[in-house]
């Protein structure tokens, strides 16, 4: 499903950080007001190193606040998130109608926009 309109709406209300290499954006992450605090996501990156850097940058302005981030177990980030003070309080399941979409190995989704949006 094309997510351009969703991403445009999120970016309009979020703080966004990017990873840039060789003049190209190779990753991005968003943080925005949500519920009792903020939600980090989506976070899209080439690898876990970039994903961690994006998340750390997005979270640093919200220390002591309620911060939500929805990651799948496949992201490999759960233990690291707990080590920086974001405990696991539930689990996320990515759903799709029919066959899951093909994944671009250069752009992995590490954190969802939120569970209801994917």
TrEMBL record:
<dbReference type="InterPro" id="IPR041496">
    <property type="entry name" value="YitH/HolE_GNAT"/>
</dbReference>
<protein>
    <recommendedName>
        <fullName>YitH/HolE acetyltransferase (GNAT) domain-containing protein</fullName>
    </recommendedName>
</protein>
<dbReference type="Pfam" id="PF18014">
    <property type="entry name" value="Acetyltransf_18"/>
</dbReference>
<dbReference type="InterPro" id="IPR016181">
    <property type="entry name" value="Acyl_CoA_acyltransferase"/>
</dbReference>
<feature type="domain" description="YitH/HolE acetyltransferase (GNAT)">
    <location>
        <begin position="2"/>
        <end position="111"/>
    </location>
</feature>
């Amino acid at each position: 499903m094309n997510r351009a309109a969703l991403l445009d709406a999120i970016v309009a209300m979020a703080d966004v950080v990017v990873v840039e290499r060789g003049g190209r954006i190779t990753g991005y992450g968003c943080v925005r007001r949500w519920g009792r605090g903020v939600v980090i996501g989506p976070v899209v990156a080439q690898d876990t190193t970039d994903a961690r850097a994006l998340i750390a940058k997005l979270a640093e302005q919200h220390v002591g606040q309620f911060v939500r981030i929805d990651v799948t177990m496949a992201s490999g980030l759960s233990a690291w998130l707990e080590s920086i003070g974001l405990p696991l309080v539930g689990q996320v399941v990515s759903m799709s109608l029919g066959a899951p979409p093909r994944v671009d190995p250069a752009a992995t989704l590490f954190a969802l926009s939120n569970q209801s949006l994917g």
